């Protein structure tokens, strides 16, 4: 069966996609939804996707390619609730970004695999601001990796890798700075030293 659909509040498990327009086909023999093209809007975020959703047997699971032309971290966190619902950030970052990534595997966190690249601007976190952020992300075996994080601020940059074990909330962080001075940070300037 071939369909053109226009849905509001579309979701699969704990992945929320908002308003979606899609061209897809449904194979009843293997229960596979083949998404030829999908365009969506979730709050301030715009994206497109293609791939398949299998609902039974050996093809059960997701095989999706998703591209965000523009999004915000708060939107992405809500959309990917399956991944983020148990992560407690000490402070929530906010930034605008574009990204492309693949989502493969089953409909539970343990079997989900995600690979992607994020390029962002206007990072705000704990009263600090930075012009740019980029990172590679992956999720496999309940381990969320944010690698090659590069945050550009003033004349310098902060580089880091963050690994989050979603089974036990263990967070490992490695990082360093280049070319940043104390006066490049808002908290230091507010001290009036």
Number of strands: 11
On the 0 to 100 scale, the average pLDDT is: 90
Q: What string, H for helix and E for strand, traces the elements in order?
A: EEEEEHHEEEEEEH
Q: How would you describe the shape?
A: elongated
Q: Characterize the largest beta sheet: strand count, sense, and whether it forms a barrel.
A: 11 strands, antiparallel
Structural class, from helix and strand content? mainly beta
State the low-pLDDT regions, or none: none
| Fraction of residues in β-strands | over 45%
Strand order of the largest sheet: 1-2-3-4-5-6-7-8-9-10-11
Integer-rounded radius of gyration: 19 Å
Treating each run of at least 4 consecutive H or I residues as one helix, how many helices? Answer: 3
Helix content: under 10%
**Distance between termini?**
69 Å
Secondary-structure map with pairings?
Elements (H helix, E strand, L loop, with lengths): L1 E11 L2 E13 L4 E11 L2 E10 L6 E12 H7 L1 H4 L9 E12 L6 E14 L2 E13 L2 E11 L2 E10 L4 E9 L7 H6 L2
Antiparallel strand pairs: 1-2, 2-3, 3-4, 4-5, 5-6, 6-7, 7-8, 8-9, 9-10, 10-11
Describe the structure.
The chain is mainly beta and 193 residues long. Helices cover 9% and strands 65% of the residues. The chain has helices spanning 73-79, 81-84, 186-191, and strands spanning 2-12, 15-27, 32-42, 45-54, 61-72, 94-105, 112-125, 128-140, 143-153, 156-165, 170-178. An 11-stranded antiparallel beta sheet has the order 1-2-3-4-5-6-7-8-9-10-11. The longest helix has 7 residues, at 73-79. It is elongated and about 70 Å long. The relative contact order is 0.11. The model has no long low-confidence stretch (mean pLDDT 90).
